[in-house]
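quick one before i forget lol
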Amino acid sequence: MTAPPAPDRILALDALRGIAVIGIVGMNAMAFAMPGPAYYNPLSFGSTSPPDYWVWLASFVFVEDKFRTLFAMLFGAGCLILIERAGAAPWRAHYARMIGLFAIGLVHATLLASNDVLRAYALAGLFLPLLAGLSARALVTVSLGLLGVHVFLGMAMFGPAVAAWAQERHGSEMLLWAERQFGRDPAVMAALLEQGREAFSERVLRRTLGIPAQMTTLVAALPLNLSAIALGMGLWRGGMLKGEWRTFRLQRIAGLAALVALPGLLALAGVLVSTGFPAALVGPVALLLSAPFDMTLAVSYAALAMAFLGGSGAATARLASAGRLSLTNYLMTSVILSAIFASWGLGLFGEVTRWQAIVLGLVPVAAMLAWSPLWVAKVGQGPFERLWRRLSRGLSYTPEK
């Protein structure tokens, strides 16, 4: 049973948000189950059986960074919705929301998930005053420009490693750095396995001490995250995420976007497979060269959802409930995955193959689909959505003089 949506809610948009938070689980399961380099490189760690290769290929083409991008797009649309409805002094409330979200993300990253995205979205959200007054076309243009900045700056960083690999300069410092981040260095793997099996108190201490370094990474990711957020704002302002576009138009956009994205992603995957997954290429392909195609496929997913999830079917209602509790479901996914993989849970970190990690990732997906409709029907707002709102109200409170 699911409570009917509030009159001002768009069911397809809530369902799309549910799809995004579910899709993120696929790659989060990898992050919790294996050492960091294995997230991008199937040869870094674990089995290289055909099922694991196929799981890597399907993840790279259809999942990796597509749903994270979609989540960021919907975050941008949600921020713009609240700003448009805020009336007087919208920025005080907006900045309070960003500070509250960053605080939640910081606790989440310290206790559970080092790959937390909430902090990145909160930092990017600080720049929304520069974007909120723009037209839909201008927002899409800004999004593409920021995406170009991300690729350009990233290639400037990875370029020396790629050049060293092409020239077979095996002792290059940049190649060694790439190997540590995206390769299969045995010493690095052993250290990461030991780190992944640390006690809870040890992990909290390490991540607390690493907060300054994490901030550097978050700032480096600003152009990419702000690009996705601006695109979501543009798609809201342009009417697509409001449910104003006709089904045929949405289908056409989805088809064209997929025709652009899928060949590009398959070509990049082919390059990695044919070259044997060299670390110097894995990094730029996964983080930079695939980014335009990731964003394009995310748009295709959004268009398909808006085209086909506007009805009142049971599946749409269940997805919409998961979407209404997206923050809570995102955080609870980390709790469940920690219970499966962390040392204070079942301790399966480093003990499963890629395809087994994907199967175990279905546990939090099933949980959120089961509990979300019940919670929405009986309570309404999720517990962490409520916490975020209370934090934001407290931060934006101005005492009377």
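fyi Residues 1-7 have pLDDT under 50 and may be disordered.
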